[in-house]
Give the backbone structure.
Amino acid sequence: MKRWAARLATLVGAMIAGVALTATPAHAAEPSIAALAAQPVDYVALGDSYSSGTGAPPYQDLGCLRSSRSYAPLWASTHAVSSFVFAACGGATTSDVLNSQLGALNADTDLVTITIGGNDIGFADVMTTCTLGSNTSCVNAINQALVEATTILPARLDATYAAIRAAAPNALVVVLGYPRLIEPTGSCGLFNLSSTKRTALNNGADALDAVIAERVAAAGPGFVYQSAIAHFAGHGACGPSPWINRFSLFQIVESYHPNANGYSAGYLPLVNAVTG
């Protein structure tokens, strides 16, 4: 049985606690575990659309909008793996992870990655309201989502992380956060967003980031949080070099999701910074 991730927990568990809650992305400070990965790893990718690859077609699974351009299959194709299970699914909530995605985990699982929590607080509804509604309706929708993020989501994340640990006791679990979606300036075309909406959305992303980081820190050794806020800075939708898709009536499901560069240049380096 391969135990490189379990050994990592003992080695760096204390080290990651100090950086998990900072605004500086953890990839700048966290140690590499490449030297510990003496054998090919069993890797399972869990989570929602930000892990399944939604926003970067073509899709191999239309039901979950899984794409080979997601960071998860990109990581598996560039590292030594003995098995890779791509369980992430677009639209997933914490409940979906608990009920439908944990079957691939076991004591041999070495690495787990996950993005989760956005759909629990109504990500899609918030973005639709902010794109098509007034400033007031946008701000109200964000405020309601943040109430849920601080009152309901923490317990759901705790239960999800605990279930992952129970099902994969020896795995390193890399939890990835969500980026700020919109650049402060720049045109979004027909469905442009006011500065009020952009500020509220980006402040909301920061608040959600803080909630997830706190719960990952509480999950214990073997859990590492990688914030996407700083790494994606300058690459939000509507900017000159976007890693996030802007709103489109023709591709609504892909709106405000990473594009191919968002997965390869955005999320993949965050995972590589932990795993080597």
Observations:
- Residues 195-219 form the longest helix (25 residues).
- Residues 1-32 have pLDDT under 50 and may be disordered.
- Residues 46-275 form a domain with the Rossmann fold fold (CATH 3.40.50.1110).
- Strands lie at 41-45, 59-61, 66-67, 81-86, 111-114, 172-176, 223-226.
